[in-house]
Specification:
Elements (H helix, E strand, L loop, with lengths): L9 H14 L3 E2 L12 H12 L1 H15 L3 H11 L1 H5 L1 H18 L2 H19 L6 H8 L15 H4 L2 H18 L5 H20 L6 H7 E5 L17 H10 L4 H10 L4 H11 E3 L1 H14 L13 H4 L24 H4 L6 H4 L18 H10 L1 H9 L3 E2 L18 H8 L14 H25 L3 H11 L3 H4 L1 H18 L2 H18 L4 H9 L12 H18 L6 H20 L11 H5 L5 H4 L6 H4 L33 H11 L3 H10 L4 H9 L1
Antiparallel strand pairs: 1-4, 2-3
Protein name: CTLH domain-containing protein
Length: about 700
Amino acid sequence: MDSSSTPVNWETLDALVIEFAKSENLIEDSSPVSSPSSSSASSSSLSSVSSSTYQSRLLIRQIRRLIVLGDIDSAIDLLRVHAPFILDDHRLLFLLHKQKFIELLRKGTTEDRAAAMSCLRTGLAPCALDAYPEAYEEFKHVLLAFIYDKNDKTSPVADEWSEKKRFDIAGLMSSVLRAQLHAYDPVFSMAVRYLISIHKGFCLRQGISSPISDLTERLLLEERDPAAKPQESLYEAPPFDEVDVQALAHAVELTRQGAVDSLRFAKGDLVQAFQNELCRMKLDVTVLDDLVHEYCIYRGIVDSSYAYGISSDIECGSIKQGAEISGDISQLAFSIEADADMICPQTIDTEDRYPYETTSNHEDCSTSGTNQTGMSKVLQRNRGKGIAKRNKRKRWRGRQEDIEITPEVISGGCKQDFSTVMAPSSPYTSKLKQEKSFALDSASNLESRYEIVLRLKELASKGMAAEVVEEINVIDPNFFAQNSLLLFQLKQLEFLKLVRTGDHSSALKIASTTLGPLGARDPTLLKPLKETLMTLLRPNEMISGDDSALYAIATSLQVAIGRRLGIEEPRLMKILRTTLHTHNEWFKLQMCKDVFEGLLRIDSLKDISSTSLLADSASKAIADTCARDSSQVTVSSSMTKEDSNSPAQVSSKDVLCEESAIIKVMEFLALPRADAIHLLVQYNGNAETVIQQIFS
């Protein structure tokens, strides 16, 4: 799977990451998030909502953890204060009381058994009468816990004793609370879930291995929270549009009945049902925070002055790899974990967690070809500006989940464990040992290189191509010999800047001395070279001051020069490139557009149309992205997208399949969209014929 050339709108990703970090209170910054112009109004409003529901999301996590710890009383107390409507639902209240009964018996003391009996009389039995039809039978069944030991795995109530019940109830409560409080995760978090889910499904169905499986398996877990079920009064809801049902079922891998139940619970709102189902997917927030932090440091979003010297080896007192550190940093690059206390055990292999990192100082991170004197000059020249720029960066504070709750809410038996789970240590709270001064010196070296890379990225994003080329030649005279494409882009940018100011003679000089020879050596550059020269004839029509184009070039430059200086690009970049590539491929197979991509800003992440002139030569895969506009848009009754001008799904036999026929075959035969289309093609697009042939 070659996804390295998949274009990504990094400006949009920066905005999504910043919005996520602010929404989850991971950074100390109160300024508003500036959404890119390509974001839709609906997705912008979604971002503001996710930010304003931080306290609700935090409350849900608290209640989840209390239930997982078996402290049902504390969870009920929190619900009574913050979400009393949950306790009005006797279905949920019955489950809580039943689990409370089990937890009291689990403690085993005489007092607790007496409390369990009181729970039966005052709480569990009354709820069992009207919770749901099977509740009374479940009530009688759970009474067997009085006579069967909790360690008896063969008892009729072994399932009731299982601690897995805690996780199931905690997940169900989270699903209901999230939907009722509209406390959905930030857009970025949901987009990551969705893209990875599609990526996993695509790789499985196509029988190919994922190049990012080491990350995706840790990030998106297989299990999901239980689905929130609609109350019986909602079972008579009007029938839903089958387009909605099929879109939801295939987007989040539900059965048709599961999709119908989800829509019932959301009262027919496809967007809400989609978000409910998406947030059921369990994401390891520790891993996600780590990836986001790594990306923010790389992009210069957060201050990194104290982050580089920290690695799992140093924190754990191991110098297995640290002893090899020299002036050329290899192992300290991005050796940053979201929670140092959680990763310190030496049973964790650093290479397993960071498969892309080098194991020797003389591999990919080598900077032997760079001019150390030139690097020093560049650093000295820009020292004042760099300090001013750093002072404007945000400060990473990490995930703090110790929100204020009254002390009496937490019962004494679980208070210590609860505080441990609720307030994980900050990623960088541990003090570095003084004897590791060599590592700090190396980290300082790495930090200097970061500042150089970020400075070059900043110059490129401002269109200062001549200055970029000059500084890179000072640092590494051989860089552009190995990166001729970047040199072409930068000189192309300089050419356009001169044309825009009316200095045509200087522009032609650049074209003849640099662009022309580069085009002669690489035929793929001839087309963009011709288009560049055409701007001499129509300077007023050319791309002028295009920030997106500059951003794309600046990012490409950052990755290339960073690697040359021993700085690998963050893993989040690799995840986005790969998952966006499989998202494209998956919906090509489905022969339709993704009706949810606008909601999650996936369309904005793919939107590179504004960089057509400057970035055409940056990636040979750009033309492939146009194919995503060639298929028909599935129109939902709840989410409407404009249809493209291209024809609908067309087979090799030029058979046009109507959307109603596709949906009918998908519904009756429970088939994926692509399989339904292939069957329709064989029978001239007639759904009735397909169904008759299958059942005959």
